[in-house]
Specification:
Oligomer: single chain
Structural class: mainly alpha
Distance between the termini: 81 Å
Shape: globular
Radius of gyration: 35 Å
Largest sheet: 2 strands, antiparallel
Number of strands: 4
Strand order of the largest sheet: 1-2
Number of helices: 62
Amino acid sequence: MPLPLQQHERQQRAAEQVLDRRLRPVYEMVDSRNLKGALKLVNSLLQKAGGDQAQTKLVKALVLYRMGREGEAVEVCGEVREEGREGRLTERTLMDLMDLLARMGRAHEAAEAFEAAAAKQPDNVELQELLVGAALKSRSYVKMQQAAMRLHKKQPKNDKYLLWAVCSMDLQAFEKENHAACHLPSSVASFHLPASAAATSAPGAATSSPVPVSAAEVAKQRRQLLQLAEAMIQRKAQSEGGLKSAEALRLYVDLMRRQGKGEEVLRVLQGPMAKLFTIKSDLLQIRGEVQQDLAQFTDAAATFRELLAVSDDDWVASLSYLDSLMLAHLQSSLSTPLSEAVAAVTADAATAAATAATAATTGAKPIAAESHASSGSEGGSGGGSAEAGRESATRESRLVQGLLLRMLAGGGYGGEGGGDGGLGGKGEEEGGAAGGGGGSEGGMEGGEWESVCAGGAAASALDVACRAPESKRVQDELFRILSEADRYFQGLRDRLLAQQHSPHQHLSGSGQPAMKRVDQSSERDGEERAQPASASSGEAGAAQGESKSTEGEAASAGVLVKASATSKGPRVARGPFLMRLEVLLRRLHLLQWFGCGPGEVLSAAADLESALLAYFDRHGDMISFASDVQAYALALPHDVRDRLGTELRSKVAGLEPLGGKGGIRTGESGEEPAEDGGKGGRREGEAAREMRKRLRRIISVEQVDGVMGNWRSLDDHALISRAQRCVRLFLEASPLSAALDPREKGHADELLPVAASCLVEVYRRHQPEGVGYLIEAVLVLNYGVSLRPFSPLFNTMLVSIYGLLGCPSLALSSFQRLRAKHIQMDTLTHLVLPYLHQSASLADVSSLHTDMRSFFNDHVWRDNADVTMEALRHGTYSKIREFAAFHHRLQHSHQRLLLSPNSLLLSLPLALLPPSTLPPAITQSGSAAPNQAPVSEPVAKVREVLAAAGGGREEVRRVVEEQLSLVRVNEDWSVRAWWDPLPLPFSSLLGACGKGQLPPDSWINLESPEKQQSRDSLLLKHAQSRGLLPRLLFLSLSSPSHLLPSQGKKAEVGAGAGEVGGGGEEGEAVEGEWEAVLQQSCRLNGVGDDEMERMAEEGAVDAATQQQDLPALLARLPCLLFTASLALHHLQSPVTATTGSSSSTTTTTTNAAASAKRAVGLVQAVSAVLAATLQLLQRECMLPGSSAEASQKHLPPLLVSGKLLLCALGSFVGESAFWSALIISHWHAAAQSHPPAGKKTKKAGPDVAQQGLPEEVVRAVKAARELARVGLQSLRKALSGQISGKGQLPDSDMACALIGLLPGVNCSVAGDDKMAIPGRVVGELCKLVKEKAEGAAAGQQGTSSTQKEDNRLKENGGHRDSDAANGDGDGSLDGVLVEWSATSAAERLLWSHRRFIQQLVALLDCQIGILGST
């Protein structure tokens, strides 16, 4: 028997090799993008007999998919699936089929083929495992569970498959949690489609829509799934073999914790199975967290203290220990009020559960309204005293934690990052998608936990009881506990200091131990480990009378700083030293909470200040220092902050210059050969290490000074002097980074962003006249890019400034140098996308959209499932839910939600313009040479594009309340520049685009939960508004003949029209949907119904509206366009020809006259808003005389005016003006083509009469068209005049003229150095760069170019720089600047700005052509 089997395998391998040889040319053609040739070749292969035809068909489907013919690819895959139902597909073909269908979002179809194949071969274990993976990829967790159980029955001794089934049930419960927890912020208005419109919101929705399920029922299903999964793994744990891995035990524990079974978890962790945890700290961490959930805070404190004995630098354990001590006291001191509060919360939960049960029997209720009740139903109706006891303990734990959170709320405690170890820090992987900080281990879900933390009735009662005069003992006891905790951590600090007295440790002259060495890699590790500290460091306090301890610690730390650092041991732990700051901060916040006198508060702030100075003495040379102390410094009063900044600057006053009077010599620049031949073959020189430490201390002081906002009190001259100092120090320290790869972070990279921030602040004070400071900031950052092309510190700032200056191509180039990939396509693209959307850079934004769509599709449909399956195979079960939570975040990402409507809106101008890299050339006369013949029917073409995408229905479906409540804002806001805290169109602290807010208190802000919620609400509103636009555009560009199926015109406008019209009453359904979507769009844009009706009656806008800023006008223009389109649609709608009385005819005539009057008023209001917008643009930034100095030097006024209206201008030309041209052109075509009112047309049929437009409406439409055409032509002329005309200077001369706006560059008068004028920083930089270049040239006169190249190759390990080989370093516009000069940077700025204006002119040409086509 073995021989025939081996022979069969050999034959199969031979057949696969033959097939690979036949298909290899096809794959090569696909890789070379010769898709037509690949399709022709694969068709010829299919015509030949023999071979694996199914695999060949899949290759054909792949080629069709790459060609964009997805429908045909699905048909070919369907043929392969039919063969799969007969069980004739190989495993390779099945996997390829799954991969291809998953790319198209049809993984469930491939899963059917796997099921059929597995049914044919039930004993094939490998195929059954593939079936589990297929079910996982299609998110069919029930089928995944069934397949895993079948495998377990075949191999009952292999507990792997049993655990697979348990994980699949846990994933089902995770889905239920997300379903029940979804809710919108209260500030986001709810929005539901009308019933008739919602029933046809997507193809097949009327027949396949699921039956609504109440949140209480979903919570019940989740509880049952968790109970069943726990029972399955419990039987295995209690069997003879038991659980065999720590991951299996962790899964068992997690299942019990999610049900609130803390007592059972503790029994398991104290039993024999606890030995499965090979790392003791993991066991202690879980035990302490469970004890906190059960309100056993005293036991939890003992557990975390035991954990600190094992790992004294564990920051999470340190915070948890301090939390537990304080919580235990609050629990014992407020036992009576706490019991009453628990009873009140329990009663509220029971009432909510009863209300939800009643609503479930009387009618469906929105899930968002039931999410709060689901918790009470799950806990209150579960039955049993044990479960009721668990619920009571959980509520008590949450109430006490909420009380402590409110006590320590000052300084951002419990804010954005407060969760790695502090209160409320349960990860959302445990707590579901939208539960906030609640977690799900204890039964109190998101809404209930949020109400407790925000101060519900029960929480308020606790606050009153805690602050009552008779509760003075609570205050005293808390301070005593803080004193005890501080003494404990002082013991840890003393032990760490004592460990440095070793025989191998170098001692200073005073006998004190030297500070341990902190090399570059450990500093970077420290920066990562510092995030929990800086994130949750809003937690506060310490004990009274501890100033002596602070002074002693400062003294000992100062001795350590002065000691020479020669030890090669590990870095000194920071956790116990940071806990000194934490204790003092908590004491400060408690004094504020209890309303103590200002003297006590100032004394506590002074103690915290002294501790910060001591921490700087010990850890000031670490990269993580600023992030470590950020929250503590921000908690200080402003006068104490100023004093702290002065003290810190005095500590580093003698550290400059870094290399002494002689500076840093080349020989001290970094490294020398290692004597012991260790790893890397190099070791750091003593002098270089010392200089790096001094540099890090100076940088730390600059960063902390920025954190505290002390820079805001400096005058202009002081800010410029500070920027000059940073530039000098950066140039002086550059030799320290000479040996680093350009991709690595330099040792002084933080200094140039500080200099640029000072310049931006000076511009902010003097905008728009001080635009020279903004240009100067660009030049300074460009120098940093010339040395460190991929530095995020430089490029993130450049993205913002370039975008504001109207240089989107440079903004995109800076963003691309960040090398964003994978998840960063979701978290970082907010830096550049808003600028690209509002810049008319169609090709650039289309390319970025393609990359984002590829990432989302690959991960959502393929990669996440593959990684999850690998985790199952390797037995890392604790990661399964984590991967599911990550998948949920990406599937419902805010950026992914915006991607669909933005891509669809972008495709509209691309359908009329070629996506060329450069716009039409602008000649000296200002005329444009068109790239191609204009589209004959632009409105029909745009309508066809929208109809092919479903007419915008899918985009509307995604932003209704049930879907919008699932959206997750994943953007990383910490990378944004301080002057640009939110992406456009919300706010920019610079320019008229924003609301003119003052800058934040610091350059690095700790966001409070309220601020996060407000920001997320803004983003959700904007996303909903964008999601409604494609549908409104499609309806506005569609006449009644396109919306009614009886006209027989479905094929004319594509598949989307078939979805719009679908029945005898479809016209009324469309109008109802149109009105609902339009009303919501107006509400989101701040346009009320009263304002709209007033403008319709008056036929114009009032003076207040005309004087509004550009963003307000741009928000009203689309609303007016869509409202007027709906009014005209009513006038054109067909009416059924019926015979009626004269009275009914008179009534109809009266209504028609009123409708016509309203339509005329709306059309005239559109003209008025459009005219006001154009006038504002002309007045603000279009007039050549807006900048006399710029006109004299032939510079673009838009660039040098300093008003930064370019983003709003791009938004108007790229979207508002484009939509206006399309819709007004559509109105004009309808006015010309419709017959007089009441006349029947042949196309309409015998029973339908198509109404013509009244004469007054026709006149208003024609006037609007003419006004739009003339206004856009005037705007185009003004824009083209910015970049062309008589006497235009060459690029180099214009760059010199731009530099001429910085008079400080060439200042030579001795007394002028005290003047605050633009250019001083760049002048200092140019002088230092020139001196550096001359010195380098003098030192290398004897070195030939060949020797230089050999040395460079030797430093790179014998390999040439890949970027230089790829042409990235050629100094091109999109490459890296090799040799920096202010003139070259200015040339790039002018080139990008000119390209932006050219793109706007090209779009205006298209819009003028649209208006003239009718």
